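seq as requested:
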Amino acid sequence: MPDRDRIAARLDALWQIALGPAGGADRPAYSAAEAEAVRMVAGWAAEQDLEPGLDPYGNLWALPPGDGSVVTAGSHVDTVPDGGRYDGALGTVLGLEIARDLAADGIAAGVLVCAAEEAPRFGAGTVGSRQLVGTVDDSDLEAMRDARGVTAAEAREQYLAALADLPRVAPAPERVRAHCEIHVAQRPELRELGVVTRVASPRRFELRIEGEAGHSGEVAMEARRDALAAAAEVILAVEAAARAEPPATVATVGTLEVSPGAVSVIPGAVRLAIDVRGVDAASLDHVEAVIREGVAIICERRDVAGHLTLTRAGEPVALDADLVAAALATAERLGVPARATWSGAGHDAQHLAAIIRALLLFVPLHGGASHTPQEGADMDEIVQATAVAVATLAAPGA
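struct tokens:
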């Protein structure tokens, strides 16, 4: 059975590694703080007779001795700035509990903790898991930079150097017959254990609008080619396109750069980023088509040039249907309230699913929004999720 005190103590130990200005967890991707957290988890894994080691991408593998097949569980330990206590850390700590309980039942089990899952530092997330499955390579890391100009490739090398005391291992996905990631829910409406069937993958676009700068007091309104005014219409059009779709489809304009950016100058150029997500490919296709059409119409009417570029192509990922069915049946048998659900946020499990049968479970969120210091979870529901994961992975065929 999961040890409540041990779970709470380990979550607190990870929480205390590095605190942000508002008191949240602050362990950026490929940072010294993430490395410290990984070393801590590796130590806990060694205490329960697992063999921890890092693969070339910084992912932590902690597997039982030998080369036989195993099941694994785990999440990540990096955080957003001033992040929550549970995001990533919960699934990692519970991965150790799951491996311990399965081992007690004679089932070979280990832990897989993926590196650099959170996106804020480099503008791209799930880096470790995407490298593992081959959808991100070293050239991609060279192109990712943080606010100080450090590339993700440089940061990864610093991170690996900080963990030089840990053994280096080759990735071993061929040994893993099933993997489970438990994560705190990031949608407050989910009030029971969530068994995830599909995970959204973002389609991201960059839009450059080029108009004409001019003196704000000397250019008549009818003569203006205002790039920012066109961008304002585009932003509302993006919002309207998503609102016309099912609730799981969303679209966001998250950044806006205005040039020349002076109060007395008509904006001559604007660059903005659009993030579209959903779990239905047809809905995503439709939103993309509506946005493209809307950009063309708005830019033509306002006599500005619009250049829309797809910067990241993404399709929804379906997780293993057999594991989903087994988890729902297990929850019912154990009397744990649960339902099938979807995820709009990205997770390592969606990428691992390309090479490993993957299960993703959500523990209901309590006490505030995810990615904030107020993020909360109920210990009874944490234990229930762990029990469902153990029983599901222990079942024949897992």
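The chain has a mean pLDDT of 96.
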